[in-house]
């Protein structure tokens, strides 16, 4: 199994609900990849993978989880010069809608 030739920072978000908003703070322009568990494994094996995100030119950026499951965030400098410091936090947990009584 090969690993990407570039350094990256990995954040394991564990199991999360669809609609949860993730905020990523960066010290420089960098790539941000939000991936489910299957695509993160493919990323670590340098295989074709899918992700939400891309080049982040501003900070912070917010990404919304498109579906419930085990999620990962990767911040890397592939194609960019220098280093980046990053921080990831969940700013809004998905909330189950409450039923309301009809009046």
TrEMBL record:
Domain DUF1883: from-to ranges: 6-93
InterPro entries: DUF1883, DUF1883-like_sf
Coiled-coil stretches noted in the UniProt entry, renumbered to this chain: none
Top-level taxon of the source organism: Bacteria
Record protein name field: TIR protein
Organism of provenance: Rhizobium tubonense
